[in-house]
Design goal:
Blueprint: H1 11-18, H2 24-38, H3 44-54, H4 58-74
Length: 80
């Protein structure tokens, strides 16, 4: 049997329902810092170098995050 449930809500309502923290102020600060930093970038090479410097652990960090998400979604249907 397959059941589909559609819930219509705003992103803010979904965040609260799922119990996720409100990170809007941190996001605003991050966007402001990125905007200020990008004002001096005039070439693609500078942009790539800057991205390498600010990326948390670069490619390894991205791979670890992907593994974390895979583990979270694979265990989502199990009850312990």
């Amino acid at each position: 049997m397959k059941v589909n449930v559609e819930i219509e809500c705003s992103p803010e309502e979904a965040r609260r329902f799922l119990g996720l923290p409100d990170v809007s102020k941190a996001n605003e600060a991050y966007v402001d810092a990125m905007t200020k930093a990008m004002q001096g970038v005039v070439s693609v090479d500078q942009l790539q170098e800057y991205a390498r410097q600010i990326a948390p652990m670069g490619q390894m960090g991205l791979k670890m995050f992907q593994q974390l998400m895979d583990m979270a979604t694979s265990g989502a249907g199990t009850i312990k």
